Amino acid sequence: MQSDDEPHPHPTLLSDFILGSQDGLVNVLGILLGLVAASVEPGSHVTALIVIIAGLSALAAEALSMAAVAYTSTYSRLKLYGSEREREIREMREVPELEREEVRVILRGWGFEGEDLEDMLRRIEAKPKAWLDLMMAFELNLSYVPPEAPRRSAILVGSATILGSIVPLVPFFFYQLSLVNAAIIAAILSAIMLFGIGFYEARVTAGSIWRSGLRITVIGLASGFAGLVIGHFAGLL
What we know:
Order of helices and strands: HHHHHHHH
Shape: elongated
Radius of gyration: 25 Å
Number of strands: 0
Distance between the termini: 53 Å
């Protein structure tokens, strides 16, 4: 558990890191295992160089794609927050009594009643920014999105995707290893990193390290091994 003095990572940063690293690792691992599975079939011409080229190509495409998706999705949230904020400001100015009643609904949900409710309403109404922030968070369920968030999210997701994609590729650069042995090592390294991602998530969220680590490891490896199954049957064709 983190103490009050420790910095608390922003939840969006955590989700961006997990999204990018896990996605990059699983996608590249699936492609590599599929190629290796196809290579063991008679007549296959799959080599380590082909595996590396395929992995690097997947790395580049996935990193750019994930960064672009992170940017556009975060930018959409930024625009939505801005437009809803402007609408709330307009309604606070044009239909203040309706907005006051919406605040009352929120306060009743928190247990305020009678004079306590009206007193709290007056206090909130006297602070327009607090009033606006309250409506954005508790009426519309929208979190503030800073202007730099799209760029920051794109950089983090893209970088995490590259990091995750490199892990299963590393063994294939050692040409003294057979493709099968390189694939086994790649799967082991991937399992270690996936567990590490779950470990980091649990440390930040105060969850169970083993449960979080095993959950992400099992989900990631299951998705990656789907490529092995496809590669095996494709090699039979």
